Amino acid sequence: MDDDFDAMVDTCRAAYDVVMEHGTLEMQAFARALLHAMAKEAARRAAASPNGDDS
C-alpha cells in the first residue's frame, strides 16, 4: 500500500480508540463503519497488488 493510505489508516485507528471511549453512540457507529471501509479498501488493494501482498 502507499504511505499516504497507511498514514490515514494509522490516524483513523488512533481516532477510533478515542471515539470509542468518549464519543456518542452515533459517533461510535460512524467510527466502526469507517474502519470497516478501510479494511475493505486494504483488502482490495492487496488483491490488486501484482505481488499479491500489500506493497
Largest sheet: none
Beta-strand portion reads under 5%
What's the β-strand tally? Answer: 0
Helix % is over 70%
Short overview:
This protein is mainly α and 55 residues long. The protein contains 2 helices and no strands.
Protein model, in words:
With 55 residues, the protein is mostly helical. The protein has one domain (3-47). Helices cover 80% and strands 0% of the residues. It contains two helices and no strands. It is elongated. The termini are close together.
Topology (SSEs and partners):
Blueprint: H1 3-22, H2 25-48
Helix pairs in contact: 1-2
Q: Keyphrases for this structure?
A:
55 residues, mainly alpha, 2 helices, 0% strand
